[in-house]
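Let us walk through a complete example step by step. Step one is to write down the protein sequence. Step two is to encode the small molecule, cytidine-5'-triphosphate, as a SMILES string so that its atoms and bonds are unambiguous. Step three, shown after the inputs, is the structure prediction itself.
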Amino acid sequence: MESYQVIILAAGQGKRMKANVNKQFITIGSEPLLAHTIDVFEQDDWCEAIYLVIQPNDREMIESIVDEKNFSKVRQYVTGGKERQDSVRLGLEAADPSKITMIHDGARPFVSQEELHRLHKATERTGAAFLAVPVTDTIKQVDGGRVKTLKRSVLFAAQTPQAFRYDLIQRAHEWAHNENIQATDDVQLLELMEQAVELVEGSYRNMKLTTPEDIQRAENVLQINRHSKQEEEL
Ligand SMILES: Nc1ccn([C@@H]2O[C@H](COP(=O)(O)OP(=O)(O)OP(=O)(O)O)[C@@H](O)[C@H]2O)c(=O)n1
Ligand SMILES: C[C@](O)(CO)[C@H](O)COP(=O)(O)O
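Step three: the predicted structure of the complex.
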C-alpha cells in the first residue's frame, strides 16, 4: 500500500455540545478528545502526514497538546472556514496533491487501525471509500404532512474517515464551491457528480461526540477498547 495523509477537522464550534470549552478539549479518560483522535493516525504506520484544521483562537492550546504528546506527523495547522465543507476545502488546499487523502472529524476519537486499513485498501482499489454502519432505528421520511417508513436494510449511517484519491475530492470541492452546493459529508459531493464510492463497513464504536449525552458514551467506549486491548495482550 502507498502511504496516505489525513485532514483532521477541528474548526467547528461544538454548539450542540453546550460545553464551556470547544468540544475538542473535553476530557475523555484523562486526555483531550482531540488527542485521542490524532493519536490513532500518529500510530498508523501508513499515515504519513496530519493536517489539523482549526480555529485560530484554539491554536495555542492545540499546539500544546501536539507538543506534550510528541505527535510527530502534524505537518500543518490550517485555519478552518464557516461550515465543515469550507474547512475541508481549506485543508485540501494545504495538503499534498499526490497522496491518498483521508478526511476525518476531530470529534470521532475511536476509529480503529483495522478500519483504517480496510478503508485505505478500498480507496486504492476504487478511488473513493467511506466507513458506515447499518442503521438500527426505523427511519421515517417526513415530507410536509406525509410520513413514510424507509427500507431499513438498505440504510447506513455514514461515518468518517472518508478517503479519496486527491484529484477526485479536490475537483468535487472546487465544483461545489463554484456552484454553491452544500453537503453534510464529502462523499455526498462525489455522489452528486455521479462518481462511484465504496462503502466499507465500520463499527458503532466510531461514534461522533455531538451532544452532552455522548460524553458518557465515549467514556464507555474507551473502557471497552482498553479492556479489549488488555485481553489481546494476554
Ligand atoms: N466550520 C467547521 C464545522 C465543523 N468542523 C469540524 O467537523 C467535525 C464534525 O462536525 P460537528 O460534529 O458538527 O462539529 P461542530 O460543527 O463543531 O458542532 P455543532 O454543529 O454542534 O456546532 C468536527 O470535528 C468539527 O470540529 C470544522 O472543522 N469546521
Ligand atoms: C461527516 C459526518 O460525520 C458523517 O456522519 C457528518 O455528516 C457530520 O455532520 P455534522 O452536521 O457536522 O454533525
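Step four is interpretation. Helices lie at 33-43, 59-68, 84-94, 113-126, 166-179, 187-192, 213-233.
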